Amino acid sequence: MMARRSRGSDARAVFQVAVSGGGTCTPAVASQATILGEALADLGAVIICGGLGGVMEGVARGARQRGGTVVGVLPGYELGSGNRFLSVRVPTGLGHGRNVLVAAAGDVLVAFPGGAGTLSEIALALKLRRPVIGVGTWGHIAGVDEVRDVVVAVERLRALIPQRGT
Predict the structure, then answer these.
(1) How far is CA 96 from the centre of its chain?
(2) pLDDT of 71-124, one tens digit each?
(3) pTM for this one?
(4) What are the residues whose beta carbons fall under 8 Å from the beta carbon of 157, sequence distance 6 or more?
(5) Could you give phi then psi for residue 139, rounded to 5 degrees?
């Protein structure tokens, strides 16, 4: 069972979901990321991601199609960089160092297949005691709730989102 992160005394705070995955990915993974973005927008969550292509673009596309908010934590200094579906661009100039910001900004991290950057965000989220849901990731990382598809990931996320007014 994944624990909820303390939100302090503000029970109405927005639930933030960090999403990690490859900057390039297969069409099937991009489709799953888009479906996740749609579901997160429907749940009222704010999405935090690395802001570039692949999984990040897929989740941003889905969220924006449903009126959601997506924050892209960008590797460079260019405010105009990032994918076209971002609501907010945060240029960091940190390169891969931005991964700690992505991992820390979420109440939970949802990870899709990716490379070393995705793996680092998973490790950082675990170190920060954030719940991590893996959708088709490595499948053998201690502490990662590995699920078979986005439908199951959304079920897990629903259980983590604080109920308003409670």
Answers:
(1) 16
(2) 999 999 998 899 999 999 999 999 999 999 999 999 999 999 999 999 999 999
(3) 0.91
(4) 17, 39, 40, 43, 45, 108, 110, 133
(5) 80, 0
Taking each helix axis from N to C end, the angle separating 55-65 and 27-42, rounded to the nearest 10 degrees, works out to: 40
Phi/psi of residue 148, each to 5°?
-85, -25
DSSP secondary structure letters along 125-163: HHHTT--EEEESS-S--TTEEEESSHHHHHHHHHHHSPP
Greatest distance between any 2 Cα atoms in the chain: 42
CA-angle at 120, arms to 2 and 79, nearest 5°: 105
Q: Could you give the domains of the chain? A: 16-160 (3.40.50.450)
Token duo for residue 149 = 């598809």
Q: For 95, which DSSP code? A: G
Cα–Cα distance for residue pair 20/25, rounded to 1 Å: 12
Using alpha carbons only, what angle is made at residue 96 by residues 117 and 5, rounded to the nearest 5 degrees? 70
Span 121-130, pLDDT tens digits = 999 999 999 9
Contact yes or no for 159/152 (Cβ under 8 A): no
The tokens describing 25, both together, are 């990915």
